[in-house]
Amino acid sequence: MEIPKAFFLAFLATGYYSDIVDEPSLKIISCSHYQKKFIQRKHVCSIRVSPLCASNNVTYPNSCVYCFANIALNLTLQIKFSGRCPKPHS
């Protein structure tokens, strides 16, 4: 299970944080497809962009990337809304 963790860390390093907020609308995304062993080995996501703001205040570019991150975090994430998360104020 080290590959999902490495993928998640690599994703965070790419900086998918943003400062634009979309209209809130709760989404439920099933990640069961991405939990299959042959899918876990491939770790391939499309480049389609459909941002999702998750409960950890990270914007994921699409549901595939969100699911791999969620699996790496033991399915602890939830979608707050479709769109980009607000940039944290420092």
UniProtKB/TrEMBL annotation:
Residue ranges of domain Kazal-like in the record: 25-87
GO CC annotation terms, alphabetical: extracellular region
Principal cellular location given in the protein's record: secreted
SUPFAM superfamilies: Kazal-type serine protease inhibitors
SMART domains: KAZAL (SM00280)
InterPro entries reported for this sequence: Kazal-type_SerProtInhib, Kazal_dom, Kazal_dom_sf
Identification of the protein by name: Predicted gene, 36368
Source domain of life: Eukaryota
UniProt entry keywords in alphabetical sequence: Disulfide bond, Secreted
Subcellular location: Secreted
